[in-house]
Amino acid sequence: MSLFKKDFKLKIIEKRKIWYLISCLIILAGLISFFVQGFNFGIDFTGGSYLQLTFIDESSADADKETAAEAEATEDKASNFTSREVALEDLRAVVNQYVEKTPLIQHDKTNNAYVIRTELTDEDEVNELLAAIEADLGSYHIDRNELVGPTIGNELVRKAILALVIACALMLIYISFRFQFWFGIASIVTLLHDALIVLSVFTLFQLEMSSSFIAAILTVIGYSINATIVVFDRVRESMPNYRAAERLALMNDSISMTFARSVNTTITTLLTLLALVLFGGDTTKIFVFAMIVGICAGFYSSVCLSGSLYYDFTSRFGKKKS
Q1: pTM, whole model, 2 decimals?
Q2: Torsion of the alpha carbons at 71, 76, 79 and 85, rounded to the nearest 10
Q3: What average pLDDT is seen over the chain?
Q4: Fewer Cβ neighbours under 10 Å: the N or C end of the chain?
């Protein structure tokens, strides 16, 4: 059974100035926040250290000091020792003494290893941190110890922007050929709107931006364009049944007919993301939160902005047809 009646009608286009104002206020707040406090870039962009440690159970017969020293010197991951667990709160308390930003610490239960990401870029500072961890939490084996340079993050941003530009250009060409040129322009504007909303939320709340954030932005764009195309496809199918003077009714009716689909797909996706929030690790939280913001922005833009933009573009710049 459908949640909406067959004669369910929305009056979206008449209130388009309200939708424009809401979007402009959020983006303006994000722009002000960007100039005041900037983005909170993670070590993928600013550089930092990546550590993976396995704590040694010293009570085990195989985990004596000679074995631990040999394992650390040779970095042999297959060394004969028994691992043990430590409390994440205790590990985080030690790491927080040597870093300013909140470190990203994850417990890999598969091999009982602990992954630590910090903004430390100096080898001596990293060694000092490792010494403090050993003093407070006991012996460990270093599975991985790497320093990440900021150039990798800069290259990642350039490639992401290039991918976004190419994707928008190709989508504009396809939509213009398959539908209409103004359908394509309205679609690209809504895509940029969704990306700006996510960026605004992250700078307003100073959420850390990592490489997974780039993946989330690109995923949101792919999701959002699909929802917008569904609305425009219904507009194109219904267009022969409306006169030129009835363009406003055409847009409202098309949005109303696709509204149930937009609600259902958005709720289904959000339920999946909620499962990732509850059962996923720390490394997926940034990706999931960016996806949640982007999905909500995509639903809002496909319902409230896409048809409104198309209506304004065709009213001002489109050719008038009977």
Answers
A1: 0.77
A2: 80
A3: 83
A4: N
